[in-house]
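Complex record, three chains
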Amino acid sequence: MFELYFPIAVLAVVAVVLALVLMVLSGILGPKRPDKVKLMPYESGMDPYGQARDRYSVSFYLVAVEFIVFDLEVVFLYPWAVRFLDLDAGAFWAMMVFITVLLLGLVYTLKKGTLDWDSSTAAHNRA
Amino acid sequence: MDLLHDLSYFWPAAITSIGGLAAMMAAAFKTDMRWVNAVAVFTALSATVVAASDLVAGHSGLLFSGMVAHGGTAAFGTFVVSLGTLFTLVLSRSYLEKIGHHYAEVYALILFATTGMIVLASATDLVALFVGLETMSVCLYVLAGLVRERKTGIEAALKYFLLGAFSTGFLLYGIALLYGATMSTSLDVIAATTDKGGLYWAGVGLLLVGFLFKVSAVPFHMWTPDVYQGAPTTITGYMATAAKTSAFVAFILVLGRGLQGSVEQWAPVLEIVALLTMIVGNLIALVQHDVKRMLAYSSIAHAGYALVGLTAGTLSGYDGVLFYLFAYTLMNIGAFAVLAYYETADGQERSTLEQFAGLGWQQPALGVALSIFLFSLAGMPPFAGFAGKYQVFAAAIEQGYITLALVGVLTSAAAAFYYIRVMVYLYFKSPEQPVSLPAVDRLYGWTILLLAGLTILFGVMPSLIVNLF
Amino acid sequence: MLTTYLFILLATFAVASAVATILSRHAVTSALFLVLNMVSLAGVYLLLKAQYLAVIQILVYAGAIMVLFLFVIMLLNTDKEESVLKQISLKMVVSFLLGTAVLAQLLFAVAGWTDTLPMISAAMTEVGTVEAIGDQLFTRYVLPFELTGILLTAAVIGALLIAQHHNKKGTS
């Protein structure tokens, strides 16, 4: 069974080795002349202030949750797509129902303004 | 077509899920809340009617390639769950309006939870059981934390979620081990196993732990008081009745259908748990001053009584539990509904015993109804609670569990004290400041009276429903 | 033999990283150990010839769900964050990996010596393919599959209801 995974193993090894080699090479070969400005974190050319780990809006989290929901939809879609021709009509309608349910969920999300980043439209939808 | 044929026996779940989707769309398009409530109530009503007609029709069999059963125990579970949902939806409207959390999403979540409960209560395959359980739980986690402004609401949601997820882990691990031991998740195949090794018993043990967590049996009951207290009151009633009913019906199906052959092994375990649950639940309830929290402990104690019927491990035991769940649903939703009214009636939040002083004279009909529910919860004849207790204890005695029945009767006597204490406050204590409660919403009042009437009806004539099993 | 060896190696890594997830005091370190745990499990799935499950394990769990975990950790806004990178040293990472690998080697040797090596049966070869999953999911398990749709939708509603601010009017 391992012959099948051999190309993947090669790819994984190449990826790791290449990354290590490049890091080590740049460490050895590159000139190092650090100064205060160069070591400063890059924040669009402005002087950085405050912590990088700041609290931020829960909206990001909502988008992540919804991403997972629709990611899982794809997980179910893929086996269906692979076996589409061999499965009967029941499976087709089962998937249609499933997609419809999640589509309604998406409509709900859109109407609720979760994906609106412009605060004025979001406020309008929420009101 | 095959799937459509199966669906025709599984309408209640389909109806509630469609109703849930409709409520979700109503939330998206900001429909008038009166309509949302009406549609949700109509959905639950039609699910109840269909479930009742399935129950009366008396056919039975397996659906969806053995995933769920219809008829018999499953049909009765579906009926009780739908009925509990129906009453919850009718009662929730005015309560949620008063606490300012009347959203269409609440209806969507309740109906989705009901779909999960129906699948859970009819599952004959552990995969269906698990997905049903999760659907129910996810909705309930959110509903428990509906009142976010209060710390207790957040605590309820978080505690429920963390401990619920933890217990689901036990259940899932039990399912995995049972699958490893028997090569199947179907209860019928598991029942046919003869080769019972360590893997099998470990699986059964973990499955039991998971279930005992879900029905809040001692020593897995810690989450119940905080969750029941923090959740909105009508939702608490929903969790204590419909959710518990579906978990118990699933428990009956798993034990009676899948593990009946090992009854000698699991019955002693359940016996100890039932003893502990009855004693601990009732004793702690004795010292509660918050009525809602007292009812939470009382619900733990009632899980103990239901476990007595399961311990018997016979058909009459299971039937006793089913009737008990039905009776418990009627009286407990009623009790929480009156509590919800006292809590919100005139803008002063009431939940402790002292605050209930003299309230019984204010709206006499509601006071009488609450008394009926409390008498019934205490297990006094001629109310439904008595008939339920009688059946589970009789089944236990039949199988020789005399101690269990004895402890059950003794703890019920102790329990009568804390139920009646509420009535003492309602009628024989005078309030510090004179209160006058406004009249109750008409539909709300009539629903409570209907529940009280049913509690009496099925106490006097339990055969009306017992013959349907 | 190689399969059995790999299984013990991956299983040891899965258990060790799970224990480390619980024991490590720092949320971010915990999360990283959890990633290792999920990747080890994906390896176990591969050994069981459940390729689709292995890919999904990496994509959904190690990918999407870990992102969610890290989001939550960020939302927590704990103050002692600066010391994280100082705490994780290359030495500790290498010692964890090597220690676990040596433990696996030991377990393998002991298991071979006491003749308790787990066997991976040939019967499971064909059950893990996408085709097999598709055939089962849309025929036998169609009801749990549909219910999963409801479950996911309920999760969307729940997340929005918890996270969004409602006005206290009673109509949302």
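Note: Chain B touches chain A at residues 1-3, 17, 21, 24-25, 27-29 (CB under 8 Å).
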